[in-house]
Design goal:
Layout (H helix, E strand, L loop, with lengths): L1 E6 L2 E6 L4 E4 L2 H9 L2 H12 L2 E5 L1 H7 L4 H13 L4 E3 L4 H9 L4 H5 L2 H12 L19 H8 L3 H28 L3 H5 L10 H15 L9 H14 L2 E3 L2 H8 L9 E3 L4 H16 L1
Parallel strand pairs: 3-4, 3-6, 4-5, 6-7
Antiparallel strand pairs: 1-2
Helix pairs in contact: 1-4, 2-14, 5-11, 9-11, 11-12
Length: 285
């Protein structure tokens, strides 16, 4: 959740997750925005009841590509979520570096610099003596405004997404070839780490990469780079998440025991919202 705060006597933002952290892949955001109105209202109500949406630049980049009526529906849905969201990093490697430095999970995943930049942009004209009052009501924290602010950077983030695709397309076949030639090589070069609640992104990143290397029948395709990032961040830091079917399967293949969230895919949006509501009810008890 985003709240107004005071840092060194100046207005600022504070972000935290209140108990149920939900990660929506782009298909889920669009489905809730344009699909069943009752599911949409239930999800929004769950956020106001104590859940929070984890949201990254990857989400913003993908939903900002909507056009016409679709764009209006997505924007309205995001605005209806109010301040009940939490900005997270998009690039797993950044998060893994923070984990290696010993930072707690909440400090590893949060996109603090991005949030500060957003706040500064929104208040840049509200200088002392300007006569303007900074309105820090819930409307200030609209997620739609955050997406609009990021929209001019969309081309740059799309370029980065294409680079991620290229890295996977080039790297995974090379690793597969080494694995076929010497099956013991993978365990030496990329040993699977055990689940550690203080380093969930590292566990998930390594596990998903090993799964891709061992899956010789799968051909890397456009969009897999950003989908890989979605899968790592959703699995590592959410309580409940949605991903597409192939990434749900890969997450389920991660070594056990672990404490990763249950993953839902597109036909299971109703069940996902059931789980959020049930989790909130359990917390209240």
């Amino acid at each position: 959740m985003i709240r107004a705060g005071c840092v060194d006597g100046k207005p600022g933002l504070e972000s935290s997750v209140r108990g149920i952290a939900v990660y929506l892949d782009t298909f889920a955001i669009k489905s809730l925005a344009k699909g069943d109105a009752s599911l949409r209202q239930r999800f929004i109500a769950a956020l106001y009841d104590g859940a929070d949406l984890l949201f990254s630049i990857a989400n913003a980049m993908e939903v900002s590509g909507a056009q016409g009526a679709s764009s209006q529906a997505v924007r309205a849905f995001l605005d209806d979520l109010g301040p009940n969201w939490y900005p997270i990093e998009m690039v797993p490697q950044i998060v893994m570096q923070r984990e290696a430095a010993g930072l707690p999970p909440s400090k590893c995943c949060v996109a603090d610099e991005l949030l500060r930049a957003f706040f500064s942009n929104r208040t840049c004209e509200d200088l002392p003596g300007s006569g303007r009052v900074i309105d820090l009501s819930e409307g200030f924290f609209r997620l739609g405004a955050f997406v609009d602010w990021l929209a001019p950077q969309r081309d740059e983030h799309l370029r980065q997404s294409r680079e991620l695709d290229s890295v996977l397309k080039e790297k995974v076949p090379l690793l597969r070839a080494k694995h076929r030639q010497n099956p013991g090589w993978l365990d030496r070069a990329m040993p699977q780490v055990q689940f550690d609640a203080d380093r969930p992104a590292t566990f998930t990143f390594v596990g998903l990469m090993r799964d891709l290397v061992c899956d010789n029948g799968y051909q890397m395709r456009k969009g897999d780079g950003i989908d890989f990032c979605h899968a790592v961040m959703a699995t590592a830091f959410s309580t409940i998440a949605t991903l597409d079917k192939q990434w749900k399967r890969r997450v389920q293949n991660l070594p056990k025991p672990n404490k990763i969230p249950h993953i839902y895919y597109e036909p299971e949006l109703g069940a996902m919202i059931d789980a959020v509501e049930a989790g909130l009810a359990q917390l209240k008890q």
